[in-house]
Amino acid sequence: MDWLKDHYNLEQHLGGNETKPPSLDRMRALMTLLGDPQNEIPAIHITGTNGKGSTSRMVVELIGATGLDVGSYSSPHIDRVNDRIMIANEPLNDESMTRALAEVAEVEPWVLKSTGEKPNYFEILCAAAYNWFAATAVDVNVIEVGMGGRWDATNVIEADIAAITNIGQDHLEIIGPTVADVTREKAGIVSPNSHVICGETTPELVDIITETQHRELWRHQTEYDVAEDRLAVGGRVIDLVTPYGRHQDIFIPVNGSHQAQNAAMAVAVVEAFFGQQLDDDVVSEAFARLELPARFEVMQRQPLIIIDGAHNPPAATVAANTLFDDFAAEQAPVLVMGTNRPHDPVEFVDAIRGKEFGAIIATAANWPRAIPAETLGVALRDYGPPIETVPHVADALNRAIELAGENGTVLVTGSLYVASEARSQLHSASR
User: Fold this and answer.
1) Under a CB-based contact definition with an 8 Å cutoff, are residues 386 and 306 in contact?
2) CATH, residue 400
3) What pLDDT does residue 14 have?
4) How are strands ordered across the β-sheet holding 297-301?
5) Same domain, 62 and 110
6) Where is the Mur ligase C-terminal domain (predicted)?
7) How far apart are alpha carbons 253 and 272 in whole angstroms?
8) Three-state DSSP class for residue 225
9) Which of 30, 31, 132, 268 has a Cα-to-Cα distance from 316 of 20 to 30 A?
10) 331 Cβ partners below 8 Å, 6+ apart?
11) Cα→Cα distances 420→44, 162, 371, 385, 412, Å
């Protein structure tokens, strides 16, 4: 871990003064030195502004329910860096993670020699994942893009399936400046042999995706969709349709109508991959095992504590709708919120329906890009509900629990890093 942390971590500096043009040169050199393991296993590549993490985990469960071994790579991690490299949605253990990183470390000097630069933190982890999956002979790789698509380190594969969940106004300062530019960047994962699953429905953005060279294209609300979506105890019951047919009365044990849309995409992705309809019992078995850490995750009941990694206004809107529409409460909930540069905290609080909360506690994760709690508190000072500033997430969560009382509700959100710290604290308290 000390060796890994000694490498430049772009995630810690997003929105900073990046001057180097994007390039896959280091990543391609690294993969060549490893023997191009990314080409040895069929791949599903998933990008999008929101929902790609949930969709990826669903795809892993669906393929796993058919009896195949599935490797997956995602970012950022929630609890530990091991979470980024998983088989069957289970992170590598420490011994395996050490071996995976060590194999990349062995070839790193040659990357420096050939490109003049060391690979960065994200590139090392991505390369370690591709190499480990090839060495352990998994059957399918499910790869989540870190940011954008075209220049993302994951994009050294030619995926059988390229999935784009949606397009939003996130990271415009890096992959913008327009949403059309963002769409072109995300569509950069599509290759001529890719079957594209498109979750975006805005016509002008769909046109950009359609213009890519691809093998086939399925569009949300055209080739696949959610036919029925009903609130149920502990989740939702949904009917899904794809070009291969219909799946009825499928229970998904997760919260929010947006997860029905993610489930529809996941089923479409897997049916496109296999070229046939999945059996209903396979779909039911897969979703019965589904867990989505930090995605509107109910961590405790008295008070009700919900952890959500929403970090941009569209995701905040979804979280708010799930909270206020699906979880009826007698008293206004308490919001614990921390966010990162360069996001606008007021836009986020507007989207989360901040005026409907009884109190807002401004906090900050232990993360270089975190907006300081005091700065956040000042920005929200005149917003409406009482604002408290508590610098550390653990203390902010304890204060929220105190304010909510036994019968209240606490929502912790604003970034995956805030969600992670709160989640770890609650897990530690329950042991």
Assistant:
1) no
2) 3.90.190.20
3) 64
4) 297-301, 304-307, 409-413, 334-337, 359-364, 387-392
5) yes
6) 295-415
7) 24
8) strand
9) 268
10) 358, 404, 407, 408, 409
11) 26, 28, 16, 25, 10
Cβ(53)–Cβ(185) below 8 Å: no
| β-strand partners of 217 | 196
Residue 17 has pLDDT above 60, yes or no: no
Model confidence over 293-314: pLDDT tens digits? 999 999 999 999 999 999 999 9
pLDDT in tens, 107-155: 999 999 999 999 999 999 999 999 999 999 999 999 999 988 999 999 9
CB-based contact 235:269 (threshold 8 Å) = no
- List phi, psi (to 5°) of 207: -60, -40
Nearest to 48 by CA among 213, 209, 240: 209
- CATH number of the domain encompassing residue 235: 3.40.1190.10
pLDDT tens-digit profile of 385-414? Answer: 999 999 999 999 999 999 999 999 999 999
Domain range holding 247?
2-288
User: Does an H or E element contain 400, and which?
Assistant: helix 393-404
pTM above threshold 0.90 = yes
Answer yes or no: do 319 and 284 share one domain: no
